[in-house]
Design goal:
195 residues, alpha/beta, TIM Barrel, 6 helices
């Protein structure tokens, strides 16, 4: 089997500075990686320091780590019927997309959220509206990858049909894709075991 094109990576800590994530990835033998570009457990974050962003991009340029993925923080809920949470979630998605454009990270992985009982159709519409708002406001090469979920109550995106219904509504389809989490898919009822 030719493994020359095989990309293996991990979610890497950005503790200290985002530059240090590159060194950590190399120490672990990664040739791709996922990171948070900011604290994943809060709404607040600082603007990117241009010197740190330059350091990150310079270190990446000296490696074969490619592609790089950012993961959205945990708090955003793109399907939320709660207006404050929804507004903060859309703002967070836009900010993350902008950070990735600045860092030349090509992909942002995002959970779709939970409709909290509002109903699937309403939740899917809110997700698509959030994505469209972010893509229209933040131009660039970075794409949003929708991650499938494990199928907990009111969660969005546990079926391929739900993800397709969001993809059909996006205004820039070339900038939206899917991140398949095999563990989530299995938990949602997709049997991925080899026959």
């Amino acid at each position: 089997m030719d493994t020359s094109a095989l990309r293996l990576g991990l979610h890497i800590s950005i503790e200290g500075t985002i530059c240090q994530a590159v060194d950590r990835a190399l120490e672990r033998g990664c040739n791709t990686m996922q990171i948070f570009t900011r604290n994943p457990r809060g709404w607040q974050f600082s603007a990117l320091d241009p010197s740190i962003a330059e350091c990150f991009m310079a270190r990446i340029a000296r490696t074969d780590i490619d592609p790089i993925f950012s993961h959205m923080p945990y708090l955003p809920n793109l399907a939320s019927p709660k207006e404050r949470v929804y507004a903060l979630s859309v703002k967070s998605l836009k900010a993350e997309l902008q950070r990735c454009v600045e860092l030349r990270i090509p992909y942002v992985v995002s959970h779709m959220g939970s409709d909290l009982g509002l109903g699937k159709e309403a939740g899917l519409k809110r997700i698509a509206a959030a994505i469209n708002s972010a893509l229209l406001e933040v131009p660039g090469e970075c794409s949003i990858l929708l991650e499938n979920t494990a199928g907990t109550k009111n969660s969005m995106g546990s079926t391929f049909e739900d993800i397709r219904r969001v993809l059909e509504r996006v205004v820039e389809p070339k900038r939206v894709g899917v991140c398949l989490d095999t563990c989530h898919a299995f938990a949602a009822g997709y049997d991925l075991t080899p026959s």
